[in-house]
Each structure stands twice: as structure tokens, then as C-alpha cells.
What we know:
The protein is of the alpha/beta class. It is built from 19 helices and six strands.
Amino acid sequence: MPARTPAARLATLDDRTVRVGGDYVLYWMTTARRTRWSFPLQHAIQRALALDKPLVVVEALPRDRGASPRQARFVAEGMLDNAARFASTPIVYHPWIERGDERGFLTTIAERACLVVVDDDALGPELVPARIELVEHAGIIPLQLVGREFSSVARFRRWVQREIGPLLEVWPVADPLVGATELRPGSLPVAVTERWPMISERSFTIALDGSGGARTAELMLERFVGERLARFDEDRPDPDRLVTSGLSPWLRWGHIAAHEIVARIFAAEGWSSDRLVLAAHGAKHGWWGVGRGAESFLDEVVVWRELALGTAYQRPHDYATYDALPAWARATLARHRRDRRPALQSLATLEAGATDDRLWDAAQAELRATGRIHPAVRRVWSKQIIQMTSSPEEAFERVSVLNDRWALDAGDPLGAAGVAWTFGRYDRPWHRARPVVGTVREMTTGDLLARFPCRDYLARWGTR
């Protein structure tokens, strides 16, 4: 295990010193919800070993995270996975989901901590009576290195092509728990565990198909790489060709790291760093030095996802709002706000998937049933809502509401980026204005059906 956390991922959120007389090191886990490929967990173990103190890991889902019941269960399934892995170590693991007025938990356990390691900067120092060390591990690229917001994917891809080489040499330990065997055993006070009990398997009905947690994510990754990766570029646009990884919810909740995904692809492709073409041309293909399917998937994980993460980091307070869209997009949508819409639909009709568009309703049925939509269908699903609502602002709100209410990956910068892309972010004005959308890229269910029959997709999710 490396001796130091990469400096680009580490920040101290206050000027307090380490409380050497504390009882333990506390890791407050809220984003990197896993035991593998985790810089925050790796750092917490290193700090506990250096201080010769026990390590307490509290995996928390506070109410202010706004998780839906579906998402809370998904997180809980991951907690059960983590509990099984921590059970073979001296680490004290306390999974906790806030359900009522349970304020004071963090303050109480932090009062006895030498220091608190966090993986999210949402914690304010005023809430934690101890030194706070933030270890960021959202993706492959440390967020503070990017330094600015990018308006298009091509511009960001050129930046990645210039900078990615050295970043691929700094990896987290695949299994930091191997280094935890020498930790001191510890415990939380009974008064704490009785007042704030951990969740248990009895607390939730665990789904057996598509459940949350690292084990499911790892199995999905293996199946994707072994069976689908080579066909990813060619077959991904066809909803009847199930070649997607499906890993978005597991990435969103931190059950799997982007580093693990990229490492697995590199291993399958026999990749080495001398294959990388460090030319900032901005093209999607021709620089990773892997097969075309792997190139396309790496573009999703390392370019599109990191672009969304960077936008949220640069403008944390408004990145998911209509006002944060590019000025050209808001202007063209405003010029066409009075255009006649084919058929207006209420939010209730949209949510029920009861429009007169069979493919759109099938997409909504898939979202309600699974928390996901095939990516190609998801794009036209969101674009079509612009045609079904009375204004672009209302359309933006409805896409956001439906996504946040039903999608397993809702609340993630990547999900917000998908909503914003619908309305022009990261895109360019199209040369010819069209009704309703102006020069924002238009995509309809009819366009998709003209390319692909979607017979299997409609047979699975269509209601008529």
C-alpha cells in the first residue's frame, strides 16, 4: 500500500490538529461506498495505522441526501455487502440510514475521534468537532486538477488527451483491507449504538436481481468485459442489442470505482502505457491503443463521466438547473417557446407512461420497473418531453422530476449532465432551426425507430 494519499486528492477542511488522545480514526463514508479501489478507505487505514488507533467506518445515508426509497434500498444492499467484507478485519463498521430526527450522531462519534476522514466536502467543519481530512475519489481525474468548466465534450477530450498519461500511473490499492490486518480492534460505545442502531438485513427486502452492492457490480463488470465489450461501439445504439454495461447506478453510489472498471478493461486488452497516443486531437477513437469497443466505453467512463463531474465541481450550486444551460440554447428555446407542440401531456400521464407514443411509454415502463433506461432510448425519452410540454423550462423540470423520482442513478452529476444535454449542454447549435427546439439537437422516437425496429425492446417493455 502506498505511503501517501495523492496530494491532488487530499484536502484539510479546517485548521484543527490531530487529537492524539482520541479513541479511534473515523471514516465517514458517503460517496465511495466500497471496500476496494478506494483512496478514502486506503487513507483512513494508513492514518489509523500511523496513530496506532482503531478505525471506525460509518457508512451513512443522511436524510439531506434526498434518496428515494428505491435508492435507499439500493444503498442498503451495498451496506450488507460491505458488512460482509469488513467482518474479516479489525475495522468497526457501522452502516446507518437516517430515518427520522436523528441529528447528533456524527457530532457524538466525532467527539471521540482523533480525526475524521470524509469522501465528500458537503460536511462543514462546524458540524464536526475534530480535524477533517477530505479524500476525493469521484473518478480517474482528481477534480481539482481540471481547473475550469468545459463547454463541449470535444474540448474536454482534448484536455484529457494532454493530461491523462501521468494520471494513469497513480492508482488506488485494489484491496486496501489487506493492509488493515494490523489495525487495533475497537468498538463504538453501547450508548451510541443503542441510540443510532446500524441497519440489518431484516430492515429491507433485498432484491436478488440487479441488487446494489459491490459483488453485483463486479459480476456485471466481468460479464460485460467478457461478453459485450468488443461489440460496444457497433451495437450500443440498438436497443435490441443489449451490450451496455448497466453499471451507472453502481458508479453513482460508489459501489464500484472507475479505476476498477478501467483496470479490468486494460487487463482484457493487454494494455500498457506505451500504447497511449498523447495527441490532443479531440477525436473519440485512435488514442487509447485498445480495440474500438473498448475505446468507446473508455470514452464514456473517462471523458463523458469526468466532464459531468467537473461541471458539478466547478459550479456546485447550479449545475443541475435550467439557468446553467448555455446561453445559445436558452435563447433558441425561448424564441420557439410559442411554437405549437404536437400533444401536451400532464406530468401524471408522463409518469404513468400513458401517452400515445408506444416507444416513449416503453421507456417509462423500463424506468419505473428497473430504475434504468437503455441509453439510446433514454436520450430520445428525454428529448421527446420537450415536445410534450408547454415551455422549455417546464420540460426541463419534468425530465428532472421523472429522473430523480425513478432512476437509480438520480442525484449524480452524470444524470444531471444527461438532463442538461437534452437541452443543449456540451453540444453545438445545429445549422437549421426546427419547431419547438430551435437549433438544439432534435431526436425523436420516430428517428430511433427509423434506424432500429426495437422489436425486442417493445416486446419487453411495451404495454400495447
